[in-house]
Amino acid sequence: MSRHHQDTVTVGVGALSIEEVVAVARFGAQVEISAEALAEISATRERIEELAKDPTPVYGISTGFGALARRHIPEEMRAQLQLSLVRSHAAGSGPEVETEVIRALMLLRLSTLCTGRTGVRPVVAQTYAAALNAKIHPVVHEYGSLGCSGDLAPLAHCALALLGEGPVRVDSGDIQDAGDALSAAGIEPLVLREKEGLALINGTDGMLGMLCLAITDLREAAKVADIATAMTVEGLLGTLAVFADDLQQLRPHPGQAASAANIRAMAEGSKILEAAFEDFKKTQVQDAYSVRCAPQVAGGFRDTIEHTALVGQRELASAVDNPVVALDGRVTSNGNFHGAPVAYALDFLAVVAADLASISERRSDRFLDVARNRGLNAFLADDPGVDSGHMIAQYTQAGIVSELKRLATPASADSIPSSAMQEDHVSMGWAAGRKLRKSVDGLQRVLAIEVLTAARAIDQRTEGDTAQAAAGTAAAINALRKVTPGPGADRFLAPEIEEAVQLVQSGVLIEEVEGSIGKLL
After folding, report:
1. What backbone torsions phi and psi does residue 170 show, to the nearest 5 degrees?
2. N or C: the chain end with fewer CB closer than 10 Å?
3. Catalytic-labelled residue, pool 59, 128, 344, 395
4. H helix runs in 54-116, sequence order
5. CA 275 to each of CA 69, 128, 328: distance values in angstroms, whole numbers, following the listed order
6. 221: nearest Cα among 389, 357, 22, 405
7. What residue ranges of the chain are covered by domains with CATH 1.10.275.10?
8. pLDDT in tens, 295-342
């Protein structure tokens, strides 16, 4: 999204915001560690040093891990213990994960280190920040996390790079050895001590990073859905009466009211709708559900996003590690690494993304059927029969919507035991995040095709005279016409769809509309 963002994010003992996560992950903002965080890290490290000298075994400091926690590890083998942990857990497989997810993952692990609750030395956090600022991005793979005991494999690949091992990309360049990349950036590879390997891999950072990115994109998609709906109402000669504010207040869901307000703002002053008003009352009476109930569906979508944002903000305020250095100084095992709360939120979003795409596709389809499109050409074709118009654009939407419905099946409903049944219930939150990213992309594409289709319909009705359209819908059409031609004989359609998708995904469509009618809710 082409949105304003800060250039530097301070990572301290408090919570980052979703916007700060996106600034670093997507837009490459630099990070700095607060003096308060460094002081807290130093203070809690002293407690770890004390326990390391204690003959009583302490999990994560002087024992093995997981099902091997009963073995006491002598002091001279503890550096090897931490190194072996990172190497063995960097066991991912499959395609590379996107750079923005890796950056979010790294930032959020750094954020937990900066709470001081993990017991690492300050140099560990400083090295993490330096690698992030140098845009050294470890190669992280699609598979390897069960979303419990943290996103173990993804985080282990990141930790391994800090040790100077494994493959990385620098600023999205070619793959190179991590040791070479650190050397070129003037960063000394870490040599791990007690507890530090475990602290680097035990968190919900990957799934939380994907949640922050998805929330940002889906908030934008909610606005795009309202833009598309208003264009469809205008293109189908519908009515704005059902979007009146007093009707929304009879069912006071905040997302519904916001969506209806956006639709009204978009279509206000439409000469097309004014001219069709009397005929609508006589012959149509009311619009189909996909049009009339748009605020109810888009509103539920919006409210679900805000629920998941609350979950995300709570998780951003968390110190997820095991064992953890508690506020009273004790080092204790806990279950905060379990990803269930985040996994549920990710799955909720996949459900509502599928449904918003579904109603968008149904609106688009109405334009193509002469029995329902109120006087437009079949399939919006220039010469129906010779031309097919947007017939197959709807097929593309339908194929995506069908895929989104499959992706709406919750990952968090599944669990496979691991680690010799010590870790016998897991969240699958990483998998929920991975499929949600596909859902977000699919939703954006479906909405883009609705915008493209509605614009074609309005242009056909007005013969390209956008002065007849509302200011908001005209702004959307004009933004589209900067990159795609208007109606005409059939031509290669895929590039036009992709241009519309880029308008949506870049945020340019929203910027153009808001530049004309003011901020949308």
Report:
1. -100, 115
2. C
3. 59
4. 78-89, 99-113
5. 76, 62, 72
6. 357
7. 8-203
8. 999 999 999 999 999 999 999 999 999 889 898 888 888 988 999 999
Residue 128 among the catalytic residues: no
Tell me if the domain spanning 210-517 has CATH number 3.50.50.60.
Answer: no
Work out the pLDDT band at 77, boundaries 50, 70, 90. Answer: confident
Topology of the domain covering 8-203 = Fumarase C; Chain B, domain 1 (1.10.275)
Q: Strand pairing of 30-33 and 324-325? A: unpaired
DSSP-assigned states of every residue in 208-252: HHHHHHHHHHHHHHHHHHHHHHHHHHHHTT--SGGG-HHHHHTS-
Amino acid (1-letter code) at residue 80: Q
Q: Which ranges in 367-519 belong to alpha helices (H)?
A: 391-407, 429-462, 471-481, 494-506, 508-517
Instruction: Indicate the Cα dihedral angle 357, 360, 362, 366, nearest 10°.
Output: -160
Relative to beta strand 93-96, strand 8-11 is unpaired
Q: Note if the pTM is more than 0.90.
A: yes
Of 353, 354, 380, the C-alpha closest to 366 is: 380
